[in-house]
Amino acid sequence: xxxxTKPYAEGLTDRLRDAxxxxxxxxxxxxxGRAELLLALRDVATAQGMGKxxxxxxxxxxxxxxxxxxxxxPGLDTLxxxxxxxxxxxxxxxx
Length: 95
Description:
This protein is mostly helical. It has one domain (about 10-85).
């Protein structure tokens, strides 16, 4: 019997619905840089439903797409509200 596989993007979307996986994904992206972090946060928001995240974050859906693009420049309040809406907490550790 042949194994069935799903495309990488589809599998990633499924995994990003889990807050633990999404947090690890964001942590890895943050180590790469600012643009990578924003795109990773956009992946998480898209996987969990951009409209749902926007409502929970009290932001407009279109403004989130723009803010979370590689060239976006969201404020800290936007980042924190999106993380909270996705069930993810921001933490810090010593370098």
